[in-house]
Specification:
Largest sheet: 7 strands, mixed
Helix content: 25-40%
Strand content: 25-35%
Radius of gyration: 27 Å
Strand order of the largest sheet: 12-11-10-9-13-14-15
Oligomer: single chain
Length: 411
C-alpha cells in the first residue's frame, strides 16, 4: 500500500540551459524539506533535460508543484510531473543488484544505422540502456579533416541471455558497418586499469621491423612470406622466427640505427602515450620483434618495460642467431602476469594490445584485451577490437572523455 502521508513525484525539466537553473529548482524543493531519491541531467547543444525523483509529504505536494510551475515559467523552461507508485519505485531499486556493463561504440563517424544495430543487439539480449554519453569532442562538419573520430558510451544494465552469441553478433556488425566496440563489465577494475602492454610491430609502429631488416639484407620477399604465415597462425612462431633471423646473417648493425630513426609511428601513439604517462599507467612493450627497436621507443615515450628478442652481433655484423629465450605468444602472457605481480596490479586491471596470432595469449590473459588492426583470426578470437581509427582509440575503451583531456592540454 502507498504511504498515505508520503508521495513520490518525478519531475522532468526541459529547455535552454543556463547557470543557476538547478539551484533555483532546488530552492523550491528545499522549502518543503523533500528527500531527493534520484537526479540526472543531460545537455545536448545547450538544451537541458533534468530529471528529479523526490519524496515529499502529501500535504505539501500540491504547493510544491504549483511553485515549481511558476519557477519554470520564470526560467523559461518546461516542467512535467509524474506520480510514481511505491511498487514502481521498489522495482527500480531491485535493479541495483543486476550487472552493469559499458558498451563503447567507436568509429571515424557514427551513423544512426550503427547505433540502431548496436542497440538492437542490446535489446535482443534483454539489456536496458541507463545512460548514453559522447566521449569525443564536437564533430567537425568537414569530414576531410584528419584524425576525425567519434565515440559514444552506453551504460547498460542486466545480464546478457547469451554473452558469447552477443559478442559474435557485435563483431560481425563491426566489420559490416565500419565501427569498433568494447563490451565490458562496469566494475572497479574497469575504472582502475593500471598496466598496459603493447605489441610493437604493426601495433606501435606501422611495419614489421624484421621485414625492414630483410629488405636491407636482400631477402625481403623470403622473410615477408614467412612473417605473413606466422602472423596468420599458420606456422609456429619460434620456428618462423629462427628461420627469418638466419636469413639476416651478415647484415651490418649500423642498419638498425637507420631503421630505428625512421620508424613509422602508428596514428594516435603520441597522444596515447602522453595521456597514459600523465595518468600514471605503467607501460610495457612485449614484442616478438627486437630489443634494439623496443628500447628506441622506450626512450622516446618513457615506456617502463621492454621485453623482446636480442639479435646476436659479432664484429659489427648480425650472425643470423639470437640470444636468450624467444618472446613468443606464451612468453608474452607470462610476462604480462609477471609485470602485474611486480607492480602489484591485479590481472583484472591490466590491458593488452596487439595485432598478431602470437598476441592472443596475452589478449586473453589481460583484464582488457584489444585487437588492433589485427589479422582476421585475431579479431575472431578477441573480445574488443579497433580497426577504424588510430591507437589512441584505446583511451575511449578506458573511459577517457575528450573534455577531460582538453582541460589538461592532452589533445
Amino acid at each position: 500500500m502507498e504511504n498515505p502521508n508520503r508521495e513520490l513525484i518525478l519531475i522532468r525539466i526541459t529547455g535552454e540551459d543556463r547557470p543557476g537553473l538547478t539551484s533555483s529548482i532546488m530552492e523550491v524543493l528545499a522549502k518543503y524539506d523533500v528527500t531527493i531519491l534520484d537526479i540526472g541531467q543531460a545537455d545536448i547543444h545547450n538544451t537541458l533535460t533534468l530529471g528529479i525523483l523526490f519524496r515529499s509529504s502529501e500535504a505539501y505536494s500540491g504547493h510544491i508543484m504549483k511553485e515549481l510551475l511558476f519557477k519554470a515559467t520564470e526560467l523559461g523552461v518546461n516542467i512535467r510531473f509524474y506520480p510514481v507508485s511505491t511498487e514502481e519505485y521498489n522495482n527500480w531499486v531491485s535493479m541495483q543488484g543486476k550487472n552493469r556493463y559499458i558498451l563503447t561504440l567507436l568509429a571515424r563517424k557514427i551513423s544512426a544505422r550503427q547505433i540502431q544495430a548496436v542497440t538492437s543487439v542490446l535489446a535482443e539480449q534483454g539489456l536496458n540502456i541507463d545512460a548514453i554519453r559522447r566521449l569525443t569532442g564536437r564533430i567537425p562538419l568537414d569530414e576531410r579533416k584528419e584524425s576525425i573520430r567519434a565515440c559514444i558510451e552506453f551504460s547498460v544494465r542486466g545480464t546478457p541471455r547469451d554473452r558469447e552469441a552477443m559478442q559474435e553478433h557485435l563483431m560481425k556488425l563491426a566489420g559490416e558497418l565500419s565501427m569498433d566496440f568494447s563490451f565490458q563489465l562496469d566494475n572497479m577494475y574497469r575504472r582502475m586499469r593500471r598496466l598496459i602492454c603493447f605489441d610493437m610491430d604493426s601495433t606501435l609502429i606501422e611495419t614489421e621491423v624484421i621485414d625492414e631488416l630483410a629488405i636491407r639484407a636482400g631477402v625481403g620477399d623470403k622473410v615477408k612470406e614467412i612473417t605473413a604465415r606466422a602472423m596468420r597462425g599458420e606456422i609456429d612462431f619460434k620456428e618462423s622466427f629462427t628461420e627469418r633471423v638466419a636469413l639476416l646473417k651478415g647484415l651490418d648493425e649500423s642498419v638498425m640505427k637507420e631503421i630505428a630513426e625512421n620508424l613509422p609511428i602508428t596514428e594516435g601513439v603520441d597522444r596515447l602515450m602522453f595521456v597514459l604517462k600523465q595518468y600514471g599507467y605503467k607501460i610495457a612493450i612485449l614484442s616478438g620483434g627486437f630489443t634494439y627497436f623496443g628500447n628506441y621507443l622506450k626512450n622516446k615515450y618513457g615506456i617502463d618495460y621492454v621485453y623482446a628478442n636480442e639479435l646476436e652481433i659479432v664484429d659489427g655484423k648480425l650472425t643470423g642467431r639470437y640470444v636468450g629465450e624467444i618472446v613468443d605468444g606464451r612468453r608474452k602472457a607470462e610476462l604480462l602476469k609477471l609485470i602485474a605481480q611486480v607492480e602489484r596490479v591485479d590481472i583484472a586491471q591490466t590491458i593488452a594490445v596487439g595485432d598478431g596470432a602470437n598476441d592472443l595469449p596475452m589478449l586473453s590473459e589481460a583484464g582488457l584485451g584489444i585487437a588492433f588492426h589485427a589479422k582476421p583470426r585475431v579479431v575472431a578470437n578477441a573480445k574488443q577490437s579497433i580497426n577504424t581509427i588510430g591507437l589512441d582509440g584505446v583511451l575511449y575503451f578506458l573511459g577517457f572523455k575528450d573534455s577531460y583531456l582538453e582541460e589538461r592540454g592532452k589533445l
